[in-house]
């Protein structure tokens, strides 16, 4: 989670073939995911796959993200950007900290379907951000979905109200790198621990989604529905146990498992239960289970840090 983008660039520079591979992956990603036809080896018709492009994804200064539209959002609502809680411009929230309705003027580079720069949208506030139980952030921007469509000819991605399915085909689409990873959801993790942070019911990837620094906050798109079902957030880099950049799995009996080279995402269906009319985050809505600010937190402790946490641009 915490490796710097600069560090990721250095790693790429050490291997010219890997740099070339990134470019090749970006080009290929524009054409993969189209609806397939025909039969597989067993004679059965394979599942239909939605085309997945870069339309609606965004690049942050240190991470990736996406413009997302909820099931109850209207075209006239202010648009929302989804990314990771650890991608916040002011630094990582502390364990147990929840940020709501914080001022922000952060800018996002909006991509079109072919990963071209379609324009820039700017935040009016951080609507929600946390690294407790999940690793997610929602920014409200200064344009409605209709205005973004009119100005940039870009549609938002649909945020699914349903849990992802184990075994489902998924794509992790990075606006920062303009690169797409294709793999499957390989089950769910009771608790995923990384340093001081604990995330619940995380999505585990199969090995092809070997995400790198800068892919943090990328939308995880179910290839059958074409909807966002999770937000990419980390990978175990070196096989260490429960340390920063090396998350570990903890089952219901407390058994710890380390899976080197395996990446993870946080489910996002819960967000749809916590956003009300006008696309406003409302943690008091029935069925909303997102963590809430602790009553003991003062305004000072519930405010973004004024300095950047070392390695924030480290994100996955």
Report on this structure.
By secondary structure, the protein is mainly beta. 10% of the residues lie in helices and 33% in strands. The chain has three helices and 16 strands. The protein has a six-stranded antiparallel beta barrel. The chain has a six-stranded antiparallel beta barrel with strand order 9-10-11-16-13-12. The longest helix is centred in the N-terminal third of the chain and has 14 residues, at 16-29. The model is unreliable at 2-7, 9-42 and 296-315 (pLDDT under 50).
Write the layout of secondary structure elements.
Layout: H1 5-13, H2 16-29, E1 57-59, E2 64-69, E3 78-83, E4 98-103, E5 107-111, E6 117-130, E7 136-144, H3 145-152, E8 157-158, E9 169-174, E10 179-194, E11 197-205, E12 219-222, E13 228-235, E14 248-250, E15 256-257, E16 263-267
Parallel strand pairs: 2-8
Antiparallel strand pairs: 1-2, 1-5, 2-3, 3-7, 4-6, 5-6, 6-7, 9-10, 9-12, 10-11, 10-14, 11-16, 12-13, 13-16, 14-15
Oligomer: single chain
End-to-end distance: 5 Å
Q: How many strand elements?
A: 16
What is the strand content?
25-35%
Order of helices and strands: HHEEEEEEEHEEEEEEEEE
Number of helices in the DSSP assignment:
3
Largest sheet: 6 strands, antiparallel, barrel
Principal-axes shape call: globular
The main sheet orders its strands as: 1-2-3-7-6-5
Portion of residues within helices: under 10%
Unreliable stretches covering 5 or more consecutive residues: 2-7, 9-42, 296-315
Mean pLDDT: 85
Alpha-beta classification? mainly beta
| Cα Rg | 18 Å
């Amino acid at each position: 989670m915490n490796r710097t983008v600069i560090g990721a660039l250095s790693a790429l520079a050490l291997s010219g073939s890997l740099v070339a591979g990134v470019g090749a992956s970006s080009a290929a990603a524009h054409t993969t995911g189209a609806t397939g036809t025909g039969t597989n080896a067993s004679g059965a018709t394979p599942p239909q796959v939605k085309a997945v492009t870069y339309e609606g994804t965004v690049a942050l200064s240190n991470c990736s993200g996406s413009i997302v539209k909820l099931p109850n959002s209207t075209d006239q609502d202010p648009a929302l950007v989804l990314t990771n809680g650890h991608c916040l411009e002011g630094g990582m929230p502390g364990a147990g900290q929840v940020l709501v309705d914080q001022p922000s003027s952060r800018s996002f580079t909006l991509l079109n379907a072919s990963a071209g720069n379609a324009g820039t949208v700017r935040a009016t506030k951080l609507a929600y951000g946390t690294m407790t139980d999940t690793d997610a952030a929602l920014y409200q921007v200064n344009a409605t979905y209709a205005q973004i469509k009119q100005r940039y000819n870009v549609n938002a991605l649909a945020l699914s109200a349903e849990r992802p399915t184990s075994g489902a085909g998924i794509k992790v689409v990075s606006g920062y790198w303009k690169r797409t990873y294709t793999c499957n959801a390989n089950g769910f993790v009771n608790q995923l621990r990384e340093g001081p942070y604990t995330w619940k019911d995380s999505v585990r990837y199969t090995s092809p989604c070997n995400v790198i620094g800068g892919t943090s906050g990328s939308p995880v798109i179910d290839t059958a529905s074409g909807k966002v079902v999770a937000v990419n957030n980390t990978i175990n880099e070196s096989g260490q146990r429960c340390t920063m950049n090396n998350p570990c799995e903890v089952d219901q009996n407390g058994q710890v498992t380390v899976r080197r080279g395996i990446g993870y995402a946080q489910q996002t269906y819960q967000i749809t239960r916590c956003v009300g009319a006008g696309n406003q985050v409302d943690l008091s809505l029935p069925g909303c289970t997102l963590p809430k600010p602790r009553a003991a937190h003062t305004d000072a402790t519930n405010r973004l840090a004024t300095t950047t946490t070392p390695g924030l641009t480290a994100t996955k």
